[in-house]
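Consider this one:
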Amino acid sequence: MKDTPISTRPPTSSERILKEKFAESLANQSEQMDKLGQQLITLELAIPGLYATALKLIGGDKASLTANPSLYVIFACWFLALVLTLGSLIPRKWSVNTNIMKQDSLEESYELGIEDFFYKTAQYKRRLIIASSLLFFVGVLTAALTMF
């Protein structure tokens, strides 16, 4: 092995900006999941209300609605979707070691590094929001198929 120094240069201004934007996007992933969750809550509250209104309008003033299994499935899916979305927005306590940036994957530690924290929080929220979206879609699909 030669003892020649490795040549280096300071980063250019565009390289510095790209590094900053990368760090910002990593740190903002959880915030983006929160914004998506807030929009989902709006939908998850509005659609069941519209569905119940449509059922009332179709049935008329004196009509009664029979509670069939599909109706239970619809509202159960919508309720569970709402619970999962709310769960994604509720703050969770994470054990983070602020002295390290990224935890060694081979080390058996429950503490996260700073970079791991941003990734894990976004991943946790993303999983809940995906499950919530799927349940909500099943509810909408069931409602559409049983409406007529």
About this structure: Residues 13-59 form the longest helix (47 residues). The radius of gyration is 24 Å. Residues 94 and 117 are 8 Å apart (CA to CA).
